[in-house]
Amino acid sequence: MTKSIVREALDVFVCVEGRMNHVNMEDIIYVEHNSRTIFLYTVKGILYIPYTPLNEILRILGGDYLFQCHKSYLVNRIYIERIDRTENCILLKDYLGTIAVGRKFKRGVLQKMHYVGGETKV
After folding, report:
1. What is the sign of the dihedral through the CA atoms of 91, 96, 13 and 4?
2. DSSP states of the chain as a string?
3. How far apart are CA 49 and CA 21, in angstroms?
4. What is the mean pLDDT of each run of 10 residues along the chain (122 residues)?
């Protein structure tokens, strides 16, 4: 399977099995790694990228929008509604769901979101 991911400014081009998909960075809600496959959740749907490590996706797409909050998840900071420290999860805007925050990543998440005590609303 041929795959390729390229980012130019806010444009992301994902080529999987000969099909080129265009995604805007601001349209990516979160990225999940499961069963050796990347699931790129966007406002327009889900893109599947087989056999790509999550850290490679983060390296290519950069850390200006996305950051790692769990060993299996990257989240786009513009879709974060709130961080729940007691439940260790991120609540996404517009009821798009929740993303787990791993113990190893909790401090980094709070720093990236400029946490200032209690629950933070972004």
Report:
1. positive
2. --EEEEEETTEEEEEETTEEEEEEGGGEEEEEEETTEEEEEETTEEEEEET--HHHHHHHH-TTTEEEEETTEEEEGGGEEEEETTTTEEEEGGG--EEE--GGGHHHHHHHTT--SSSEE-
3. 11
4. 78 90 96 94 93 92 93 96 93 95 93 64 46
Q: What is the pLDDT of residue 3?
A: 61
Query: CA distances (Å), 60 to each of 5, 23, 28, 81, 94, in order?
Result: 7, 14, 14, 25, 27
Position 20: which residue type? Answer: M
Contact 28, 66 (CB under 8 A): yes
- Give the number of residues written for the chain: 122
